[in-house]
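hey so u asked for the seq, here:
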Amino acid sequence: MLRIAVTVVAVLAIGIAYLRSVPVDVISIGTPVRQDDFTYTVTRVVKEQKSENVSYVVTIRVDNEAKRVDYHWSDDIAFVTDASGRRYQAIAPSPSAAADRTPIPPGESATYDLTFDLPADAKHPMLRYWNGILMGDVFDVAAYGRAAVAL
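ran it, structure tokens below
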């Protein structure tokens, strides 16, 4: 029993190390990123220089291509990283906007605007996604987690 547990832990550690070592796949705005039966597409980016930071408003379309399952979007699925490895979450939406995050039925889509405030010295910002690993992600080794949209 102990051997099995040690083997499982070792396989998981190797898998995590592998995923962290694979370089990101930089894609352009408008390129869909598939996670299982769902796709995320950055359709627009608006950049606004402020005094101490740069604000990016990113529009993401989420398509539910599943046959039976609703999709539940959460703004923390998308995040921005910079060349220094810093990670930035979207500014929390107003309570009324957060309440609008209703499930996306099969065959339908929804669009969300997320705002990211980065310091002015952030170099090469890229929007990325992480929502865990679903069954369909096992076969492509969670490739969606390596996709990065250059902002």
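Residues 136-141 have pLDDT under 50 and may be disordered. The first strand starts at residue 25 and ends at 27.
lmk if thats what u needed
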